């Protein structure tokens, strides 16, 4: 547990220093833990676990857009789990559930218990279709077709800077739309 | 979109750097301040006997009280803009103006009273105070809420209440230079009521707009 969380903190420090690969590894490493916690929270609220992936994706988006509130001197896990809890509570409220989120839903996750998998979720995909064309194209290209920023720029005859702006705006817009549902 | 794909797009956006919450909050307050100052300059203005008033420790005390509200409220609101932050260990900072007022009321009580207590408490400006502080607070409150939206508070209503305290503290600092009621009893009553009103507005709006 301790070792895992120290590793996360190290990866996040590298990520904030500009290491995109470390950031990618970190997000992949925390996802199974978030997924297990989201399933547990849904189960406690009497909800089917198949909505867990929507919650996981919302947490990941919030982590991404709020990472400037993480203090690089502080451990990463408490910050991550606080965001996870907030998003889980929001998601359950939106589904009209009375909320009993055990504050240990996130912190308690044991390694090995969390299944390694990737699952698709409906909400982000649905909101993606409501984005402006250019943001949608860029997100599709980078996320679904795994194109680099450079290749995406060439494909749409845009500058790399414009691709970066469209990507960031698209992610921010997705988050706003998810919150507003 | 599956989660691995989402993660890929987030990693591709890693180069994007957002400013710190403190920087955004500072900018937002600086943009809002001229509006509050405009309200002050148009309807209130500095009191005419300000030069002699500055020799009165109870006049000066008003600024100590209002700034000891505004500055700690800024510090605590920035702390609470981190999702894992707790009020515990930080909330006592907000008691500073209360402590200062208690000391001021105690000192005044030990002096020979210039006026009866009820006159000092009621003053001449209680209504102006109750309108002016909230009115000058509103632009600052909007600025503070805008700045804190950049954060990720786990308790949006509490963060909104702190935005209310920040803006009321700053607005009261302006107002204190206009008001001729210097008794700490007046400050403790009317400034507090006006601040409570702004704080309640901040909490209600914050609960909606500070969710992230």
TrEMBL record, chain A:
Any one Gene Ontology MF annotation carried by this entry is:
sigma factor activity
Query: Membrane-spanning residues where?
Result: none
The reply to whether Ligase figures as a keyword in the UniProt entry is no
Keyword annotations: DNA-binding, Sigma factor, Transcription, Transcription regulation
One GO term under biological process is:
DNA-templated transcription initiation
RNA polymerase sigma factor 70 region 4 type domain ranges (all copies):
123-174
A Pfam family that this protein carries is Sigma70_r2
Query: Transcription regulation among the record's keywords?
Result: yes
Domain RNA polymerase sigma-70 region: residue ranges:
31-98
Query: What's this protein's family per the entry?
Result: Belongs to the sigma-70 factor family. ECF subfamily.
PANTHER family from the entry? ECF RNA POLYMERASE SIGMA FACTOR SIGD, RNA POLYMERASE ECF-TYPE SIGMA FACTO
What protein name applies here? Answer: RNA polymerase sigma-70 factor, ECF subfamily
Species per Swiss-Prot/TrEMBL record: Bradyrhizobium shewense
Automatic annotation (TrEMBL), chain B:
Pfam families, alphabetized: NrsF
* Alphabetically ordered keywords of this record: Membrane, Transmembrane, Transmembrane helix
Asked whether the keyword Membrane is assigned, the reply is yes
Q: Report the transmembrane regions from the record.
A: 21-43, 63-80, 92-110, 130-148, 157-176, 188-210
| Keyword Transmembrane helix applies | yes
Instruction: Please identify the protein, giving its name as recorded.
Output: DUF1109 domain-containing protein
């Amino acid at each position: 547990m301790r070792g895992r969380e120290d590793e996360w903190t190290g990866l996040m420090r590298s990520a904030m220093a500009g290491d995109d690969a470390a950031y990618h590894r970190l997000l992949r490493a925390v996802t199974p833990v978030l997924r297990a916690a989201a399933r547990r929270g849904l189960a406690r609220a009497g909800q089917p676990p198949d909505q867990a992936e929507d919650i996981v994706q919302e947490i990941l988006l919030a982590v991404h857009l709020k990472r400037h509130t993480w203090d690089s001197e502080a451990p990463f896990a408490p910050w991550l789990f606080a965001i996870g809890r907030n998003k889980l509570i929001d998601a359950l409220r939106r589904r009209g559930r009375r909320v009993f989120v055990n504050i240990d839903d996130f912190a308690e996750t044991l390694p090995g218990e969390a299944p390694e998998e990737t699952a698709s979720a409906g909400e982000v995909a649905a909101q993606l279709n409501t984005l402006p064309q250019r943001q949608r194209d860029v997100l599709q290209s980078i996320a679904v077709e795994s194109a680099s920023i450079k290749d995406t720029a060439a494909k749409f005859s845009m500058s790399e800077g414009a691709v970066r702006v469209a990507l960031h705006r698209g992610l921010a817009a997705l988050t706003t739309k998810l919150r507003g549902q | 979109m599956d989660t691995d794909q989402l993660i890929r797009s987030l990693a591709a956006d890693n180069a994007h750097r957002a400013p710190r919450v403190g920087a955004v909050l500072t900018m937002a307050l600086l943009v809002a301040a001229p509006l509050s100052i405009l309200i002050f300059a148009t309807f209130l203005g500095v009191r005419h006997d300000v030069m002699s008033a500055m020799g009165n420790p109870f006049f000066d005390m008003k600024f100590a009280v209002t700034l000891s509200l505004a500055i700690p409220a800024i510090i605590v609101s920035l702390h609470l803009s981190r999702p894992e932050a707790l009020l515990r260990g930080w909330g006592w900072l907000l008691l500073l103006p209360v402590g200062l007022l208690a000391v001021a009321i105690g000192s005044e009580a030990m002096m020979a009273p210039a006026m009866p207590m009820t006159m000092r408490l009621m003053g001449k400006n209680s209504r102006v105070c109750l309108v002016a502080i909230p009115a000058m607070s509103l632009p600052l409150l909007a600025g503070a809420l805008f700045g804190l939206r950049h954060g990720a508070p786990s308790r949006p209503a509490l963060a909104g209440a702190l935005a209310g305290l920040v803006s009321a503290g700053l607005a009261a600092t302006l107002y204190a230079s206009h008001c001729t009621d210097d008794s700490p009893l007046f400050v403790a009553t009317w400034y507090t009521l006006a601040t409570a009103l702004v704080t309640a507005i901040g909490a209600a709006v914050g609960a909606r707009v500070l969710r992230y």
